[in-house]
Specification:
This protein is of the alpha/beta class. It folds into two domains: 10-138, NAD(P)-binding Rossmann-like Domain (Rossmann fold, 3-Layer(aba) Sandwich), CATH 3.40.50; 160-306, Succinyl-CoA synthetase domains (Rossmann fold). Helices cover 34% and strands 24% of the residues. It contains nine helices and 14 strands. It has helices at residues 19-30, 75-82, 93-106, 120-133, 173-182, 204-213, 230-241, 275-284, 293-306; strands at residues 10-14, 34-39, 47-52, 65-72, 86-89, 110-113, 136-138, 144-147, 151-154, 163-170, 188-193, 219-225, 246-251, 288-290. The strands form two sheets. A seven-stranded mixed sheet has the order 3-4-2-1-5-6-7, with helices on both faces. β5 (86-89), α3 and β6 (110-113) form a beta-alpha-beta unit. α3 runs parallel beside α4 (120-133), α6 runs parallel beside α7 (230-241) and α7 (230-241) runs parallel beside α8. The chain is globular.
Length: 307
Amino acid sequence: MSIFLTANSRVLVQGMTGSEGAKHTARMLSAGTAIVGGVNPRKAGTTVTFDIQGYGPRADAVVTGPVDIPVFGTVAEGLEVTGADVSVVFVPPRFAKDAVLEAIEAGIGTVVVITEGIPVADSVEFVTRALKRGTRLIGPNCPGIITPGESNVGITPADITGPGRIGLVSKSGTLTYQMMFELRDIGFTTAIGIGGDPVVGTTHIDALRAFEEDPDTDLVVMIGEIGGDAEERAAEWIAENMSTPVVAYVAGFTAPEGKTMGHAGAIVSGSSGTAVAKAEALERVGVKVGRTPSEAAELARETLHSL
């Protein structure tokens, strides 16, 4: 099984005709993702042809060769024609809020926002709207979500791992890829990058809850980073609700106080939000925490072998 994304998910790409959207649409198609349309009001009624070369753990099940994807003027039109239930947003920051709100109002069940650099006020507005509408919003500023061998929505490389027993939730895109590679021999049910901005639509706890309910996820790897209190809140939730074992890594053990490190949300003040404080909170509730990504991967491997 998987969380939030399956082989049956039908995907619209907002911004498909732009350079980044086109590049990653080709990669998503090559991974077997069921992309059913793009959205661009200026190019409505046209089609875009992608030359697809299948790759990854189930390349034999992926169609190769030219694939024509229609472009719709609005998300609502694309949903009506194709029955899409997922939208992925590759729209520049200044237009991203309107694109996300359009997808939410159209009734798309899951919206994945890849765009980096969206103003926090814009993110607050569309995250709040998504919560009110019951829309699953992933991101912004995230690599997206992948259920290996089934579907890949976002920018995560699809050929570094296959299906398996581990669920992964991460603030960091790069560390998501590294952990998937380190544990590629075991594989993943779903890997989800929630994004590192101060305001995100899907939290560690949201993903942990879904993995806890998934009978095929035998272990969860959680990657956090300095700043905020998301990991401490996740630790409290794990202690009260989680029977599936969790292994964690917190990026930023050597980060200097008061400095932003990579993501807009990664800033510490005094002892609040430090990697050490987060690791201690997790370890108090029985979560094993690696001090490096490789150590966390080894702890995950050892924990699985002991089950």
